[in-house]
Design a protein that fits this description.
The structure is a homodimer. By secondary structure, chain A is mainly alpha-helical. In chain A, 65% of the residues lie in helices and 4% in strands. In chain A, strands 2-5-1-6 form a four-stranded antiparallel beta sheet. Chain A has a two-stranded antiparallel ribbon with strand order 3-4. Chain A is globular.
């Protein structure tokens, strides 16, 4: 790709972004759209436009995003969102410093340009003069580099000349092979690495404190008093699972055990409940239609009717309101009967056990209970709203086997997806397009279209591919037997990360030669270094455009929320009748960490890997994360509603993946500098790789377990008052098993216990 | 090695064993030797010869060893000894079944011999007759093998003929390449593997129960109420470490915290205490000498004297009794002063924390306390007598670095030791001996000497090498920063196992070509399979002799206890004066698991690896473990005194290493059958290797953690009565810090606390 198509790409991206920003500013102010742009505020009962002047300034949102403190973000969007912002800003924090390195390097380059001229001219006085002049200006910048640059004076750089029209001139590929100047690049790798270590360490400490803060907050959270117990062995004959669990925990925790709730197989009860809920919605809708018909048509109104058969198209015609009422009356006793059966007879080998104090629950969740470790496995209970009920009763080895199977499928998916991407990569060069689709030749040869196609085609193809995957990966993760939603999101995000790094980053970089290369790599794994090193520089401009497209178009779309806006207005106009339906139409989603985070990680990987090879990518990275940080803050404060709170449990995964990207980068640079640029001192990069591993190890030792378990220190802080245990218990009752008359809790005598001990705190 | 030298080797071994047995029977009955042969019984206050008729039957001890129940062994020698016996008998249990396979295989061979004759003769009627006859006799035995043997009728075995003079005729190397008969051997591998799985699973369950039984016993053990806390961060200014620890645990465990004991730097106090004890012993000895001189010489006696200088050789002459009394009087106040200073000013960053109930201690030891995981690390306290005090205060990362360094040194040791062993291996062939030491030619050429030399030289060289190592490895293990003696023994035993497998097993097998081969292996790791496969059969007879030597001479020496007996009698005659000194002279040691177990594992590895290649090794293995079991029971019941009790904590290590040996065996067989015997179906062995890994994984998941932590279930069983906490606490006071007036515990106010809460069980 030449420079003009790169500029075209950047330009069009920028134009799209500006247009989207203007659209946002315009739509944003219309009161009818407030539910789209401020749903979070509305749900919290705030005036969406409170304290805002109706300014036309398209940058007001930026001011607001910057103004908000971290505490505000946590209050509104939870610790998870705050941790995500830490991730974005840690990306930012490291890139500016990298940027500084880049400017230093540019100055070094100009110094060497002058130096070379002086050598060609061989005028000693000129050399002296130049040295004195450049010395006065550049010494403070160069001292760190100069210290390692002894004896390089005879090296002649023949590459620094020429115009900068071709982007490749700005890359490291332009430095002569074996030149001692490569020291500067090598030290650049060190510099980037140490900056990364520093920033990551600070971030981990910060997130760790955030998490501890969230865990010690005065708000009573049900999950802090509950422990999830799985792999419960079969109850002794003549004893129900419930009694079995109760007697076991009462014996082991006589002082602190409160109650247990045995997990039941709710499939059938749930089905009846959903049917009942469906008729409830239908009824509400029919009533609104009936009421409307009274005002618009005849004063007595038209009672809505429907057919009872398939999709309401066949079968006898009935009055909707009467029909729904009948059905609900019919289903209610059914549901109650099924609830009783479920609670009594469908008890499974898993339970939630409630303790009368936080430290007791924390301690119990970390203590091995049974002598056979694969029975009575304990873990901290997930939040009620994110429990994946059907997974709880899956057995230990079943989970292991499922996990293995899922990873097998993911492995195959990763390999299988490589084919279309490699194909797109090879296909979307102009020459191939003309060759294989000759009828396009006329269109393609027009210069404007050609430039646009060249700039965007591969990137768009890539983006489309990526959109199909997340749902599938989320499904797979849930199939593993993971007990909570947030854990499943983490698992899906991990898989997506592997996918994206292998397919997008490696796939595009190594490109068409991937399959041929794979064989080589399997034969000789060290080959991968050479291969990556040699392929990276070629793909630099592709990734530059990719990053630009991502942030301009991606963030533009996210900020303007055009898609949800259009869908909402369409739904409101044609589908929604009741208030509840309208609310459902604009109900905001959550952040969607499962895809958002791996995509960001891809950019981190790309920017890191190119930071020294083609430093021009760094400002793009800075803009990506800076803009991302602003947009994410805006959305966190105004739009998205968190579905769950895992108190920053995601961070260790982010951390590990950034370190992994760093190590990939270091190995790539080792290959690139050593093998491709034939730099004799490249092995000096090996220590920094070792340091990365040590860094990862120390971080894991120091921080990780506190994300996995709650430390006792943390659990003992916060309020000491005894909470309302019954409400904590009720929070975990699934909707299909709850009755309107909740105070009459006798119903739960079967699978849910009554241990009316007073707590002995 | 030909057959005659093998028989010579066996014969001499057997003669030595019989002689040692007779010596044992003879010495055993002399009352003066009871302290050597029954020290364990004497220490328990039993009559050593109680219930024994003074029979001359040299096999009485066997009857007694067999008669004792496992409960007896546990009562006398602890769970660790019982677990070791389980290990020995699991080795035995698997070998007899293997033996059965071997006999089946011999019968198969004879069947094929007949079959071949019938083919050569090509008389159809003869074939029929032979088939009918052999069928009637052999069918019940052959059916399982025959089912897999279809289509092998044309194979001609030309190897089964000839005399069995040469041992190699009995090995699998004698089967034709690619013969379908190799199926029998292949299935033999499967059979051995499944027998191993079955036996190991049973054993693990059994040991797990033994451990739980030991943990729930009614005897109050101090370590069950204590938790070891390490990596305590610096105390806040103005607070002593003791107050820091107390306030931390009182806040987190308000109900169950009893007291804490901060670890102090006892180096100086210990030195003074040891000096004092030394003078005490000297004094006792001098008094006995003085008393003796009264009876033998002049009635007023001769007061013993000594010189105060170097080794009692220089310096002024003093009266020993007066001198010692003076010194002791001098040291006592010094010791008391130093104790005070130590407790007050030498507090370190580690502590023992005592809880008022077992479950509380167990729960606390498994719960993460601090948010920074590398501080306040908790673990179950070791027994008082096996605490390695100086290691307790070593910091987290210091321990990691020490561990890494030690493993580096062990790696170097393993590599360095290879050189002499490879040298011995190459040197001790007769030809080389004659070549390099021509002056020996005359002696060596005499047939008797030649046979003996050929049979024993390499084995003796090996045994001598092995004797030098354990102390060094134990020292290294303690340097790692391990907190308890039993853990250090496990660590040393692990190192010794690596050493022994690499050096003895691989070293001897691959022998002189080892260094050349290493290069090959590094280049292409799969090479190891070929190499092992091709080298194994050659070393079969070497290992046969090695095993025989081990059990005949090794067990003979152990049972007869000749070395301790001689040392004891020498000491008693020339050195010991006081009763305490005599007791010290015969004080029995413990089992010495650190070297005993890896040596047994070497035999397991050898027997497993040769079980199919040269099945004749199996009876040797059976005798080794059978005899070992008998001797170990005898020693456990009568001789050794356990120094500590880790409740079978060693088992997971034994288990893992047996599985590792099994996997080595399976891989070796894959290489041997597949590459060397060119058997087309050898890849059918790959599934069994996978099964081994799965087996190892499942065992670890199911059992391991219960050996690492105490399950709450186990801790809650047993006595519920509140023990005397003060005596539990006192058990951990190191001797150099204890005073005669223990009831006056005010002294421990500084580093050891008083929290006189009543326990709230």
């Amino acid at each position: 790709m030449d420079f003009s198509s790169f500029v075209t790409s950047l330009g069009t991206s920028l134009i799209i972004f500006v247009v989207l920003m203007l659209v946002f500013t315009w739509l944003n102010r219309k009161p009818g759209n407030a539910v789209i742009y401020y749903p979070n505020r509305i749900l919290r009962g705030l005036d969406p436009l409170e304290g805002r002047t109706m300014t036309r300034n398209p940058l007001t949102w930026i001011k607001e995003a910057v103004k908000a403190s971290e505490a505000d973000v946590i209050a509104v969007a939870g610790v998870d969102a705050a941790v995500y912002l830490v991730f974005l800003s840690s990306g930012m924090a490291s890139t500016p410093v990298v940027l500084k390195v880049f400017t230093v390097r540019l100055k070094v380059a100009s110094f060497w340009l002058i130096w070379r001229v002086s050598l060609i001219d061989t005028f000693v006085d000129a050399v002296l003069a130049i040295l004195v002049f450049s010395g006065i200006i550049l010494l403070p910048v160069l001292l760190p580099v100069a210290a390692t640059d002894n004896g390089t004076q005879s090296t002649i750089d023949s590459n620094s000349q020429g115009t900068f029209k071709n982007l490749d001139k700005l890359t490291m590929g332009h430095v002569q092979e074996g030149s001692l100047r490569l020291w500067a690049f090598l030290l650049g790798v060190y510099w980037v690495s140490f900056v990364t270590y520093y920033v990551l360490w600070k971030s981990y400490t910060h997130v760790s404190d955030l998490r501890a803060g969230a865990k010690t907050s005065a708000v009573v959270k049900p999950e802090e008093f509950a422990v999830l117990v799985r792999d419960i062995p079969a109850a002794p004959p003549g004893q129900s699972m419930k009694d079995h669990v109760d007697s076991y925990f009462r014996a082991l925790h006589p002082e602190t055990f409160y109650k247990s709730m045995v997990v039941t197989d709710n499939k059938k009860a749930n089905k009846i409940w959903e049917e009942k809920e469906g008729y409830g919605k239908k009824l509400a809708r029919a009533e609104v239609v009936y009421a409307e018909s009274k005002t618009t048509g005849k004063p007595e109104g038209t009672r809505p009717t429907n057919r009872t058969g398939f999709l309401g198209l066949v079968g006898p015609k009935v009055d909707t309101i009467d029909h729904c009422n009948e059905k609900i009356q019919e289903l209610l006793p059914q549901l109650e009967a099924e609830q009783k059966i479920t609670l009594k007879e469908k008890q499974q080998g898993a339970a939630l056990v409630f303790f009368s104090s936080k430290p007791a629950a924390v301690s119990a969740s970390q203590t091995i209970h049974a002598q056979k470790i694969d029975t009575w496995t304990m873990m901290e209970a997930p939040e009620p709203q994110q429990v994946l009920w059907t997974n709880l009763s899956k057995k230990f080895y079943e989970r292991e086997i499922r996990s293995l199977t899922v990873y097998g499928i993911v492995f195959l998916t990763v390999c299988f997806y490589m084919i279309p991407i490699a194909f797109v990569s090879a296909f979307t060069t102009m020459e191939n397009l003309k060759k294989y689709l000759p009828f396009l030749k006329k269109i393609v040869d027009q210069p404007e279209i050609k430039t646009v196609l060249e700039a965007y085609l591969p990137q768009i193809a890539l983006l489309v591919f990526m959109a199909l995957l997340p749902t599938f990966l989320m499904f797979l993760s849930k199939e593993e037997g993971i007990p909570s939603e947030s854990h499943a999101v983490r698992a899906a995000s991990g898989k997506y990360f592997y996918f994206i790094v292998f397919n997008v980053f490696l796939g595009v970089t190594i490109g068409g030669t991937l399959y041929g290369s794979l064989k080589e790599i399997i034969k000789k794994p060290s080959q991968i270094i050479t291969l990556l090193g040699s392929s990276l520089p070629k793909s630099a401009t592709f990734f530059l455009t990719y990053v630009a497209l991502k942030f301009f178009v991606g963030y533009g779309l996210e900020l303007s929320r055009l898609v949800p806006l259009i869908i909402f207005h369409l739904k409101k106009k044609f589908l929604c009748k009741t208030e509840a339906e309208v609310k459902e139409a604009w109900a905001p989603s959550d952040f969607g960490y499962a895809t958002r985070f791996p995509n960001d990680m891809l950019i981190v990987t790309i920017v890191l890997c190119y930071s020294v090879i083609a430093p021009i990518i760094i400002p793009f990275g800075v803009v990506y994360f800076g803009l991302g940080w602003l947009v994410a803050r805006n959305q966190a404060l105004k739009v998205y509603v968190p579905r769950y709170e895992s108190s920053g449990r995601m961070w260790p995964h982010m951390h590990a993946r950034i370190v992994a990207a760093l190590i990939v980068y270091q190995i790539t640079m080792l290959g690139y500098i050593g093998i491709l640029r034939k730099f004799y001192y490249a092995p000096f990069l090996i220590p920094v790789i070792a340091i990365s591993f040590i860094f990862a190890y120390v971080c894991k030792q120091r921080f990780y377990l506190a994300f996995f378990h709650t430390p006792l220190e943390v659990a003992c802080q916060g309020t000491k008052e005894i909470p309302n245990m019954e409400s904590i218990y009720a929070a975990y009752i699934p909707p299909c098993l709850s009755t309107e008359k909740l105070q009459d809790a006798d119903q739960f005598e079967d699978a849910h216990s009554h241990s009316l001990r007073t707590t002995s705190l």
